[in-house]
Amino acid sequence: MAAENRNRWLALMVLCLGSFMIVLDTTIVNVALPSIRTELHFNESSLAWVVNAYMLFFGGFLLLGGRLGDLYGHRRIFLAGIALFTVASFGAGLSSSQAMLVAARAVQGLGGALASAVGLSLIMTLFTDNAERAKAMGVVGFVSAGGGSVGVLLGGILTSALGWHSVFLVNIPIGIAVCALSLKYVAVGRGAASGARLDIAGAIAVTGAVMIAVYGIVNGNEAGWTSLRTTSFLGAAIALLAIFVAIESRVREPLIPLGMFRLRNLATANAMGVLWAAAMFAWFFLSALYLQVVLGYSPLQVGLAFLPGNVIMAIFSVGISARLVMRFGIQPPLGAGLALAGLGLGLLVRAPIEGSYVTDVLPSMILLGLGAGMAFNPMLLAAMGDVQPHESGLASGLVNTSFMLGGALGLAVLASLASAQTSASLAAGETVASALTSGYHAAFAVGAAFAIGAAALGLWVLRIREQAAQRSDDEFALATAAD
Fold first, then answer.
1. In angstroms, rounded to a whole number, what is the distance separating the alpha carbons of residues 260 and 250?
2. Which CATH architecture has domain 2-198+255-481?
């Protein structure tokens, strides 16, 4: 029994290592973009495709990846995704042309989508006890929330020391290790929906809808939000989504049973995920821009600036968050964490042009680390708690899609808002530094509103049934003593 319990936690570490590699890749590449542009002769618009190709395929195939896991086995799809991501990383690292790099990034996105879509469902299968599941989700929360900011630091180190190729090649030994260790520690299992048919028409419709929506969103700033190009893509995405709903209401074995959207907690948690991801992108990207562009920090200094928040996030995610859930239930730590994150972003609204890290940035980093560490674990538990085993992969794909779309939409909206405010400030005669700071302030304020909105949904819309949080103090003490 002890060996079986040890193997489950080892399996969790393997799954989290794969997830960390994928999450890391979303930000580690950003630091290397200037070097990539110089060496491969990208212009500004074509350079965006190094990021957009990944986002399109990652976002587009999450739902399909989750369903494939339910049909054919979650470990099989996870391994396929990690292997594909690793091979694509090798191709990206050896790229000598723009086309080769963009194609490799697209394949990375596909592999990342397959692995990410089934990761949560594998963990939910491994840990069925409420106390252990809360602890496991805490680890997942730290990896998901902290990987992005660690990527900024690691990207700066690798790019400075070894060049931009290294930010891709570093994935190869990690990917090989994850595949080998998964075969050893992650149990083989048939898909919970094994034997059912794959809804091909629904898969094509929803994958196309998400990819077109992501494309419209990430290009909204460049083309203009009211331009024919942007509105056409978003309109096409809505039309495909309507076709998808029509297909799902008629087929015998739908890709996404429409009844899942009537699960109150799943639907609410996904809405919270959109708002939360938008707020987190305000933290990771816009505060990094403020530090780099306004305060003049180097990429390495920016990464170091995020370390206090990451350390606090780690402490809360891995241990304290699980105890809070077991003691008070899902909603109080979820609402409190999101509110603290909102307060942290709110404090950045007053960060000045010649700000001090200790007085103007560090308090926000601490509050955001606390908030992320407290909230991420219960948010995942709320999303997955009401789902049947044969739909766990699909629910995992939905959660990841919500985070991805929320991040893409949030970043696009906040960047557009910051740009508009900066332009208005420049027109009013402000200096460049003052105008940029004004733009970031506006975006931080809206990001704070996103976090507060997610907190309100968690406190007043979620309906969590009786669960382990209601246990007696003696049972709580036993659960936490095992840490």
1. 15
2. Up-down Bundle (1.20)
